[in-house]
Amino acid sequence: MALVDRIGEGLERLGGGVILTSVDALVDWSRGQSLWAFPMGTACCAMELIAASFSKFDFDRLGTFPRPDPRHTDVMILAGTITEKMKPAVRRLYDQMPEPKWVVAMGNCTVSGGIFYYDTYSVVRGADQFLPVDVYISGCPPRPEALQDGVLQLRELVRMRSLAPGKRYERELALPRPEDASYSNEDPNPPSAGLEGGDAS
Amino acid sequence: MSLDIESRSSTLSDDGMPVEELVVNVGPSHPSTHGVGRVVVHLDGDVVVKADPVIGYLHRGIEKMSENRTYLQIVPLTDRLDYVGSMYANWAYCRAVERLARMRVPERAEYLRVIVCELQRIASHMMGIGASAADTGAFTAFVYAFDLRERVVELFEALCGARLTYNYVRPGGLSSDAPDGWEESVVDFVHALPRKLDELDSLFFGNAIARGRMKGIGVLSAQDAIAWGATGPTARASGVNWDLRKHDPYSVYPRMDFDVVVGERGDAYDRNRCRLLECYESARIVEQAVAQMHGGPVHAEGVPRLIQPAPGDAYDQIESARGTLGVYLVSDGSPRPYRMHVRSAAFANLALLPMLAKGHTLSDLVVVLGSLDPVFGEIDR
Amino acid sequence: MTQDEMTALIARIRTHNADLYPLFSLEFGDAVVGVAPEELSSTACDLREAGFDRLTMVTAVDRGETFELVYRLHSRSLTASIFVKTVVRRDDPHIASVYDVWPAANWQEREVFDLFGIVFDGHPDLRRILMPYDYEGHPLRRDFEHPNIIRRPDYI
């Protein structure tokens, strides 16, 4: 990302190995770069979660490394249907994660119940009924690339909630709906515009 | 990993030392329970006295949902049953509907069904072996096995557009014919497969640590396998020569030349090794099926969109990667089934866990569980 | 096993039983024998002796006033399979367990108990299996109502 690109330039210009930045900028940057994931794989999406971590898609290159212990992790990836019987266990594991923590809802089941919305007596219709979800990824199941895109979106979110209160900023990450005033067919977030906001400068 | 000490009861050992039976809760979110399995284990020191599997953490009520869906709308639900091998549940369900509504399936569709199901067997067994490898600490073997599975998934993606939930087999045939050049890529894959399986064989099964962890662990006798309703590689590893493809043949399997892999000792090693050797046989079947297949339609003529079978019931079964997968359908003459029941192989196999894990250490419990290859979507339904 | 042999076998089994329940037809290629609920244990023993050593499936169907219980048996030596059907009354759903004959019935009967509320007398460990232990109601009964259910709109 931006800071990494500047390290080489900066070193060359300074002629030495000294980088000056603020602590909060460094913390924000590093926190976003290595989001260790707690893979809460309950059903079908867990297969794509495993696929995303393995050789072809290689989640590690994005700094996301699955750890089976909630106490080691920053982000809980909910992959698969959550039933009423499973709900207390998921909540308990979420409570065991250290702050700051984020939740990625992977797949339609955790977004809204998906295919198990109607006629069933045991499925929780969306993880946001009992957990604060930060990123929603639709699909049944989503492709591994979609999950990786979701984690990249989460990085942006981490930077928005900066360690320094003065550097926090708000930006609409979700696409606007047709009834919103800001709706247009153009890309609402051009890649060059917002990404620099929270970086060290 | 969640380890809860639920209760302690103190007794005295033979030499008068106080001994506490420890109750350890493994799961429902545990990397070695292959999903949302939970086992309440009673331990004497490190030895399992009693293991009580607690299931139902993925019970989504698919059987209840089916009562308010038309016959065609249930096919996507069957995808989510056994998510490691979606094609099997598709096919088993469609066979039951075809039997109930007396449909005939074109020959090309039957061949393509055999091809996708044998490819699915390779993919599913790779997942099963890989997960067992990860349980015994051989993570590299897991990566190798999963890479092979990824190749199959790519073939399926070319075939029907989905990586995991295929919705490919439909009552009366298939959703679509194979695209141009697909058969050639399948043949290329199965030609290259044996060499890759050899590599996995020496990497994992040739490893002294893996052999030490798996040999003699969780021994299942042939008698118990039959009495407890075990099927698939779990039963065959114990010497039960029983494979629906051979002994109760369906579809075009009678035209295929293949061997049933049968083990001897019935331990965790044999169960996993049976899975590996079955992949070689699957490659043989796929090769023959592609060679025998002719052109033609892949969907039966005159199948209505709204299937309304006559009142009655029907059961049909296929040999899935985990064993006998049967679907029981009851019709009352309406467009929706009155009752659908899935006879799940993984459910019957997991019932063996209390018997197999007894007397082993806690670390061997996960080896036994992994060798039964549970998929909780199919167990809990 | 030929159809004649199967018919002879069913006739032999049925001599033990009351004629209350008619012989179901060999519908869709499967042999079906119907037995009275109180005869289930003895029929199970007879079939086990006849060579049906595998119990593939146990399930139930809600028929309103009664529950229909369906057992599917298989024999490797005879290369044959057979369905055994029996009924229990809805207001008194009790039936003998076949766990002693085929241990495979263990979890499958627990599942039927959990989802239909049919009590299997003589089962060693009759607890709920899929739903939580403290759950109320039996979901696969046709009249099961739960506040969590949202009915799907009728499109057809």
Gist of the model:
The complex is a heterotrimer of chains A (201), B (381) and C (156). Chain A is of the alpha/beta class and 201 residues long. Chain A has seven helices and four strands.
Termini gap of chain A: 13 Å
- Mean pLDDT across the residues of chain A is 79
Biggest sheet layout of chain A = 4 strands, parallel
Task: Work out the oligomeric state of the chains in this entry.
Answer: heterotrimer
The residue ranges of chain C in which pLDDT falls below 50 over 5 or more consecutive positions are: 17-26
**Topology of chain A as a string of helices (H) and strands (E):** HHEHEHEHEHH
Strand order of the largest sheet of chain A: 1-2-3-4
Show the helix and strand layout.
The complex is a heterotrimer of chains A (201), B (381) and C (156).
Chain A: H1 2-14, H2 23-33, E1 37-41, H3 45-53, E2 75-79, H4 87-96, E3 102-106, H5 108-111, E4 135-137, H6 144-160, H7 191-194
Parallel strand pairs in A: 1-2, 2-3, 3-4
Chain B: E1 5-12, E2 18-26, E3 38-44, E4 47-54, H1 62-66, H2 75-79, H3 86-101, H4 107-135, H5 139-160, E5 169-170, E6 173-174, H6 182-205, H7 208-214, H8 222-227, H9 233-236, H10 244-247, H11 268-292, E7 312-320, E8 323-331, E9 337-343, H12 345-350, H13 353-357, H14 362-371, H15 376-380
Antiparallel strand pairs in B: 1-2, 2-3, 3-4, 5-6, 7-8, 8-9
Helix pairs in contact in B: 3-4, 4-5, 4-11, 4-14, 5-6, 6-11, 11-14
Chain C: H1 3-14, E1 31-34, H2 40-49, E2 54-62, E3 66-75, E4 80-89, E5 94-96, H3 105-116, E6 119-121
Parallel strand pairs in C: 1-4, 5-6
Antiparallel strand pairs in C: 2-3, 3-4
